[in-house]
Write a structure and sequence with these properties.
single chain, 0% strand, 71 residues, 68% helix, mainly alpha
């Protein structure tokens, strides 16, 4: 399963086209748009794996009584 926050290529292109009238250099605008989307996606992936790592470590350390979460 992919994250609902990750969008399809079609959605990326549609979002870019919606703002194309505001851009003088379409190719440069496309490259900027793709770079920003890539960075956003990578940040979401990074956050996901950071959260999964914290959950995994908390569970494993709790199993061996090295860590007891509070709250």
């Amino acid at each position: 399963n992919s994250s609902p926050e990750l969008r399809s290529k079609k959605a990326l292109i549609e979002n870019f086209i919606n703002g194309i009238n505001e851009i003088d250099d379409v190719l440069a605008g496309w490259r900027t748009f793709v770079a920003e989307e890539k960075e956003d996606i990578m940040n979401n992936v990074k956050k996901y794996y950071e959260n999964r790592t914290i959950i995994f470590l908390t569970e494993k350390l709790s199993e061996v009584n090295l860590f007891r979460p509070t709250g």
